[in-house]
Records
---
Amino acid sequence: MSQTIHDILKQYWGYDSFRDSQEEIINSVLDENDTLALLPTGGGKSICYQVPSLVNEGICIVISPLIALMKDQVENLQKRGIKALAIFSGMNKREIDIALDNCVYGDYKFLYVSPERLQTEIFKVRLAKMKVNLIAVDESHCISQWGHDFRPAYQKIKEIRDIIQKSVPFLAVTATANTRVIQDIASQLSIDSQHIIKQSFARENLGYLVLKEENKKQRLIQIIRKTGGSGIVYVNTRRKTKEIAEFLRQNGITADYYHGGLSQEDRDNRQGNWIKNKTQVIVATNAFGMGIDKPDVRVVVHMEPPPSPEAYFQEAGRGGRDGKKSFAVLLYKPSDKTTLERFHELEFPDTIQIKKVYNALGNYFRLAIGGGENSNYEFDLIDFATKFNFEVITTHHCLSILGLAGYIHLSEAITRPNRVKFEVSNNELYNYQIKHPEHEGLIQLLLRKNEGIFDNLIGIDLTSLGDLLKKSAKEIEAILKKLKSYGILEFLPTSNQPLLTYTVDRMHEDRLKFPKAIYLDRKTVKKEQLDFMISYCESDTICRSKLLLSYFDETEFVDCGTCDVCLARKKKVLSKENFIVIEKEIEEIIRQMPLGITQLVQKMPHHNQDNILEVVQWKLDENTLTYTDKNELVLTGK
């Protein structure tokens, strides 16, 4: 081992020491232990697999669920001088061939892939030839049907153990998992309990607030003006991102909006301006935030409750990563509950409708039954739904369930630029230029501006090339197509549509099956998550941080003192005499038998419930009361 983990950390990240559990996780991996690491959002999960891979010879395979996240990670590594690449939907067979060859024969350190990619024969054959030093499973909660982002392809990750060397360790990382999900991840990846490293999800510098508010826009203005600094505002539709951003600008706050429907250039520019603090507030859908490490976010506001505590915890956790005081504010009104419940029902269309959508897909692409496995199609959801008179939202959810059932895979919408790669040798290219001087200018320009164009598909800008050669972008495109027809180069035109892939041959709709795990069980889990979020919003007696952390099965912590519930409790006045009376009565009842908090309150109907809860909380904080494993209160004897 020529460099230590601290050398690597200093060389590439400029840090002198690791944070919290990072070093323990890295050492576990270097000892070749399969490891599960649970760190809060912003806890530096990527360093836990990047550092050990850089220490050892070979390449790290990173399995990631989102294209945008893969691209961000690859770009961040490349900026640090580390060779990394990603394989994702939208790349053609030639691009994938080139990328995999680079991983086998080049000195690349990281390959990011989707879990679906692992199952392809071309990947399995090349993987066997790679010198793999680590398998990193990012967002590993996706492996569990009890997780909030269940993805069945994750459950097949363990199969690659039969292809790679037995000593290669697996590192699963996540920021959102309760006990049931943790046990599921560990079981499916055969991770021993002694190698589960969990850091508390508690964020002491983050104040959680739920504000009951009908006029949310006006309250938003007050929040941003009061907190100051950089902020994120989450909304649940693309239309609202623009609407709220314009409202903020009208009120003197620099703001912009972000969603998955924008071009890659627009998204990059808006995100960049916000990171550089040229824009104070970014208003976004949940498409924003993954892979972004902006430490000085002072406030994260949700205009509506997200559908799960995992999603809320992850999005709210993007605030205050620099350790300074920040706020996660959720604006809530009674009608939000009805909206959440309606969205939940829409998320699970009946199977008859799902089959209709599947059949229509085959007709849309003119694909015969019995064919189409691994075929890719650019897909316009709006156009498809309009042609077959389907509701867009319902169709989206039908496609999602078809994907979970393993029949199709619908990628994220990403912009794929024009790409070229020379397919001939230098000598052959030189001879071609002599015979075709009309193409020499473009060829020479491509060679000068694009290092590695003989080895990789390189993104190019047709307009810029045209400006330099005094030609239009269309003329440049025509020349490139001609060069492709002669076998001189590979040319892939730009596209920004999502890709729909048939993962198995198209079958008759009557043969479709939807396993219980991806339909009925998921519906139950999603309803549990929704119910928790409603409870979180409507509760006004339990510390927000404590309530949220209880979902992740963390129970050993005190009230945060900064959430709206804690602040309200401080304002309440309970006389010393009443306090003593209630305290003695609680002790007498609990001394007879342990009770849950609800049962205790029921046994004290002559006292105000809030006063009882206040005394109980004080005694918990003072450690004169505690909870058992069954969530029953007992006296500590202190």
---
Amino acid sequence: MGNKKQNFARFGVATKGLVYFLIGGLTAFGAFGLGGQKSGSGNALDFISQQIFGKVLLIITAVGLIGYVFWRWYQVFFDPKDMGSDFKAIVKRVSYFISGAFYGFLAFSALKQVMGSSSEGGGNSFLVKMLDYKAIAITIGLALLGKAIYEFYQAYSGEFREEVDEAGLSEKAKHLVINAAKVGFTARGIVIAIMSFLMFRTVFSSSSEKVDKTEAFGFLQNEFGSLVMGIIAIGLIAYGVFMMIKAKYSSLSID
């Protein structure tokens, strides 16, 4: 049973990596005039649905995302790494729960597309609906800001290196993976920080602006140009690759 849970969790982490790989790839292609477009999770699902056997691929993607939800919520409720119950551990477990909830919404969105409904941006459409409730929207904005700070911490504290060391890679491969992780966490932190800014701007301007990765990329393009947007998008590709490597090699602590 342990191996089945491990494999399900690994499939989930790899699926998250694939989603980020597609988000970064489609956006980078758009930035450099190669036929893509600014993309978020919903666009990644749309891309999958347009491939041969698109509905089958969407079902597989939804199952993978549910595997990621399982892994995150297993960490929340069973604490396999013995994080304890101090403030830092509680913050981590709350963030894991929110992460699981987001990818649960995204899995639901994928299944809706299988049944013929639009993806509507996956879990991000949930954020848009929450803008009707200012206190909740502010809370989400603060949560996004906290997540962005944590991504930068992940990039430069070296906390993720333990997972790389577990992989048993050669020194050259390990160096490449570490650099990919740093770039990936940094790019993700930038995108999430912009989403936090857009959330606060929407709340305090009483507008109905959409808040998702697509809008974050649009902000980057408008303020800093397509080249910067493309570089950040490539960073998300690196993050996706890191997640896939993590899924294959590192311990996910599922007992």
